[in-house]
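Researcher: Please generate the 3D structure of the following complex. Treat every line as part of one assembly.
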Amino acid sequence: QVQLVQSGAEVRKAGSSVTVSCKASGGSFSWDTISWVRQAPGQGLEWLGRIIPAPARAHHAHSFQGRITVTADTSTSTTYMHLSSLRSDDTATYFCARDAPTRTGSLDVWGNGTTVTVSS
Amino acid sequence: SYVLTQPPSVSVAPGQTATITCGGDNIGIKTLHWYQQRPGQAPVLVVYDDSLRPSGIPERFSGSNSGNTATLTISRVEAGDEADYSCQVWDSSTDHPVFGGGTKLTVL
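Model: Done. Output below.
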């Protein structure tokens, strides 16, 4: 059973950057595509980007281009999401999730979420 | 990019049937998924590929998708079903998932 465990809550100043980690266990990490999704307070879910760990291929939402980097470390089965030039509207809970093996676009396993608070 | 529209809220009495809709342009030709999210928790996939249920999801949860509307139906609603429900498709024009705004299900 695949499990995704994320790093703890972060507080950052506007203009700085943050890195959130997502450690996978119980699955074939190298072949699982991991997506990053966020949810601002009281808002819906928003997809940020994804990565296929091996060989590393990343894809980001156009609205985050230039600010987001998604990487993976196959030696530790960990995916990282780095977001720079933080703004107050980046305050949200950030989730990692596995793209389901059915390859029809669903996200079947989710991490526990990481709250990122950006202060001005 | 592709837009999915959900009603903000749906209310239903225990034991009754809840119907949550997700609208989109010709959504019936897309593959649709539904997530349940309880307060403070991560989303959980409850229906995938329009109408299939992952292991562990009760048969009370069912889905359909046709024309411009997809529907999540929850039969014999229980208090524990109270949550936000979001629909999602893959937007081929942007090559990434798109989510609806979510519907808050209240069990009266």
